[in-house]
């Protein structure tokens, strides 16, 4: 990085004078200054154009008796030079008077930037100190050039060159031009770790934000060299170790070296792990007579025998201090103390509750929020002006502001207030873009090709609102949705949301019918704890189905035979198997008309077709518990959902649907992650009405991999596999369990993002409770219009445990998360449909 300066025109000599050290200028002036004392009134000013003579004289402060000695003349000379208003200042004696001759700095007419493509003029103008119509200051120009170079350095361009050029104009005016050579980005070519014995370098690379450069780096981020990011990575590594029992860990250094041959930086983190500690005991002490420390025990997240966890310790202190404040001890301070046993590798923890300093919050100053409204920031605080100062509450507020994802950086600091018992909270923010426009594309074996265009804003109008509109169009799935969330409904910490949606699912090789659904769903979200949340919702939607032409009449193609191909009944088949045709051409069943109500689709489907549009009105809730270490790429923690929906608050259908889903991740050895996944659900009939087939659970690879979508569970067997559709009817009960090992490919670079998986699945879907007759088409108990026929619905409703084993490839690609699975069913039902290969994924850009 180089910073230079060129001067055009006759101004060059003047700037050379400014470059002369102040000491030399002062010395020359003193040599020509009179030995006799002068008065301020005897000073003559020459050469000034814009600066008033009286202003210049004011820098010379007379001493006792109104006289100026050599020392005060020297101070005045220095003060004039330091103003930056003058290129040159000289002091001489003429006619018994002190003459101050000045050469004023020119005025900046305009400031321009040339060569900048990656950073806009507006951003650079806001960062520099030199301004149009301001006075030129050479040190300030040099500082501005350095600042511009720093902006480029933050974006990874270390080869930047900034040359300020000064173009002389009439009337002592100049144009200031910054000529920028941006250079290429300087990447990180390698990230290494020294001293890490407990965790592999592969694992630690998951923790940090800095990434090594590769062929696909342009699609992601983090591979450009940024010293601030590397310093933040040191803290991430330290916190990672502290969370896993290494109480003495130190990230001693983050060494960076530029390798000119590789054209990038080599980064090395030096770690001293220390020993891993477990908790030997947890005790509670209080110096406040009326507060029993043991009553705060339930708020501790630290357990005896567990690994020492600094994060759990911090949260325990926070929750205990907040609880003490709620009980009226506003100034109570909880301080943890850990006594290490170096031989036993244990730590004894003592939570000491003391009366803290009686300090109040005088004011909360917010700086840097150019777009976000003040109240959006202030509502994340549990304290306000006048309240007792509580560090735990302030820390929690800072964490909440960071979790908003509105700001690049958030820092809350304190300044002294107007008295010793007052503090001022200063919130320094740096805002970032919160809007997203994305074009998504993907493919899955169930939905086919799918494209989506969406626009979203996390901080709509600067009011902290979330809004999103999206449109999907695919091979088998189409629709659109609008979403809106107010995170503080009626000024309470309750998120209120509204979703409006339209979905259309087309018939494919897994489903014989089309469905259309449109409706809306308002919801409320409550954060019970940081790891526990509750959502309440109401849903009102209208659904309808339709059949493709091939399933609308017996005389058309019968699409689903045992070969999975279309079947055209021959005349011999019609006469011998079905029983011939009537004079109008309708197929007869054993000589009796009907042919399943003049269609080959399942009876429950045709019943929905006859019913027309169905309105569903339901209320429900979801309880979510989440302790995952990383929501996108989890390696440790638990994710558990329990949800229930009751339909029957008006509408045409009634039921109670319950479901649980739990995933537990745990790190094993050599960067291998174990995953246990369990799920179950039940659909309960309410009243005497049958449950619609469309409301039943439909399962496939989402329960047991190796099976097709809607591939397991009860199935319509009427004239299957010849003239029947073989539609999946679904079930009212299901359960599933899966065990999986996810492992990296150690021979590939970490940045490739590939992992392998091996797994075993088991589960079942059973107990169909939908309609088996259709009075609207005359099919009741094996009769068509009162005449016997072989048209009663025959279906498989057996409870068979399906199992499979398989392997998977997981790619956290720059194009989005992709997963490929190949599974082989070990046990299956007689009519289940198998799909051994499954692929799904997509991206947004």
Describe the model.
The chain has 5 domains: 187-272, Ubiquitin-like (UB roll), CATH 3.10.20; 278-355, Ubiquitin-like (UB roll) (Roll), CATH 3.10.20; 360-431, Ubiquitin-like (UB roll); 442-546; 588-844, membrane protein fhac: a member of the omp85/tpsb transporter family (Porin). The chain has 14 helices and 42 strands. Helix 2 (22-32) runs antiparallel to helix 4 and helix 9 (310-326) crosses helix 11 (391-403). It is elongated. It starts with a strand and ends with a strand. 27% of the residues are buried.
Stated plainly, the CATH topology of the largest domain is called: Porin
Distance between the termini: 32 Å
Percent strand: 35-45%
In CATH, the homologous superfamily of the largest domain goes by the name membrane protein fhac: a member of the omp85/tpsb transporter family
Explain briefly what this protein structure is:
17% of the residues lie in helices and 41% in strands. It has 845 residues and is α+β, with helices and mostly antiparallel strands. The chain folds into five domains: 187-272, Ubiquitin-like (UB roll) (Roll); 278-355, Ubiquitin-like (UB roll), CATH 3.10.20.310; 360-431, membrane protein fhac (Ubiquitin-like (UB roll), Roll); 442-546; 588-844, membrane protein fhac: a member of the omp85/tpsb transporter family (Porin, Beta Barrel).
Task: Give the topology, please.
Blueprint: E1 2-3, E2 6-8, H1 12-19, H2 22-32, E3 38-39, E4 43-46, H3 53-57, E5 67-68, H4 70-82, E6 86-94, E7 97-104, E8 107-114, H5 121-127, H6 138-154, E9 161-169, E10 173-181, E11 187-194, H7 201-207, H8 227-242, E12 250-259, E13 264-272, E14 278-286, H9 310-326, E15 332-341, E16 346-355, E17 360-367, H10 374-378, H11 391-403, E18 407-416, E19 422-431, E20 435-444, E21 448-460, E22 465-474, E23 477-486, E24 494-505, E25 514-529, E26 532-546, H12 571-578, E27 588-589, E28 592-593, H13 595-598, H14 603-611, E29 614-626, E30 637-647, E31 655-667, E32 673-685, E33 715-716, E34 733-744, E35 754-766, E36 779-780, E37 783-784, E38 787-788, E39 795-796, E40 802-813, E41 816-827, E42 837-844
